[in-house]
Amino acid sequence: MELLIVVAIMAIITSVSLPAITSLLQSSNLAQGGQDLVGEIGKARQFASTRNTTIEVRLIQCSTYGYNAIQLWSASSEQAAATALTRMVYLPSTVVISKDSSYYSQLLSQLSSGQTMTVNGGKTASYVSFCVMPSGQLQLTSANSATETLTMSNLYLTVVPSRYGTTSLEPGSAGSPSNYFTVQINPCTAAVQTYRP
Amino acid sequence: MDRSMPIQSTIHSGNFSRGGLLHQHPSGGFSLLELIVAVAVLALLMVLLGAVSQGTMQTVHRASGKINVYASARTIFDIMNTKLSLATLNTYFDYYDSTGQTRTASNQSNFVPTSYGRASSLQFLIQQNVQNNSYGQEVYFQCPVSYSNQSNYQSTAGLLNACGYYIQYGSNQTLLPSIISMSNSKWRYRLIQAIEPTESLQIYPNAYNDAATGWIRNIANTGLPTTQAKYALPLADNVIAMIVWPKLPAGLDSTGTTLTSNYLYDSQLNVAPVNGTQPKTANQLPPILQITLIVIDETSATRLDTHSATPPSAIENALQGSTFTSVTDYQNDLTRVTQKLIESHIDYRVINTSLVLRESKWSQ
User: Could you say which of A149, B79, B125, B229 would form a disulfide bridge with B140 (CB–CB 3.0 to 4.6 Å)?
Assistant: First the structure.
């Protein structure tokens, strides 16, 4: 009888705390994913500065929801083809970099899409990329080079829970992610700043 | 047997709450007193442990704050060095007439050369901070770093940019990502790098120094906490003062007063030759720039945040009265500011470096 009561109480406590634990896990995954992105951009900046070459940061889509892997490449030049510098860094499986360029990852609107590369296992994955120059300046593979100024307020990417990877809804509206991790990049120094709602 | 009896009786007599002496059953439990003592000891230990771990945390926090300041300072100097060391004036020699003018399209018909001297259409300028004298100096110059927003220019080497560095107190709300609410904006002292893309360079149409109409108009410090120059971007937060001191190499200039007594330097000031000679600074770059930054840590900055356009009074007071306007007072000014920062319990670092301007071909 006592055992039954204990089990029942445990069941109740678990069911009450489960949503809280899930959201805690989710938020720690978001932070982890955001830190991965921050770390790779920092590494790109460091590589570019020490090797005096332009480094390409590739955001690779290995998930159906959004970009979930990052890899650094030395940018192709007249002398040499692009080569991978680091191993692919995968974000935690429950989060991706949002593909929405109107709200969550406005940086994407300044990057040309539709490029593909071969990833582990011989599969083909699409990617977008931007470059960090030795000075720390960003070089965007913009499809519309008419953009006159790079305003810092739209140079950002957002790590969101996977199911919101392609959601294009204004933050705060119904159906939009309540928790995300935004990484903003300074176009002159490639320094990053992070924000959470 | 007769040895165990007295012991048992002592246990029982202590166990008075359980009933009479005769009806005792042996018990393995602890008395209330024992429990209280145990809990008290535990509590004491916890408090001690808490205090120790809090102290450790504080130390770690401070140390990592200091490391962050050093790391960001390295980045700052690295970035400033790549631009400043390439600063150029592209000086050439030209004829001047009696009014101090060089030959131009408008005066060429009646131009009478009277002397010969250094000339340049570019400028190197160090001026006092326009938002607040006490924030130190602002530096504006041109350098061929090919900064451009147009991809077809980015791969071309040697394109000229106008660039400036200065301290500005203000909010970063115009720079926030559009999905982040304005309440996340921070009011901070920031070291600003303003660099004008090469396609927008103003030096030829507006080749004079004036914040409103001259070549620095899109990069100059606005002097206001709420508006920023068109091409201004923050390089680092929490830098409360930047002192820029143009110097000759130490062997030639032991006091550092040969080029300037008040930190100010303008390569286009009094360039017209008088009796055939020009001031040393006319159309020449200083060979060395000593740059001093006073950086506070983010914890102190958060504590002092006024959330408004009014700068925190503790820092304003520390900077006040010591306005970094005379190079001979450099050390005194620094000591006074840091003393006041210590009095206000603000963690700070003073970071110092000397940048060599490679393009400076100094001739006396």
Answer: B125
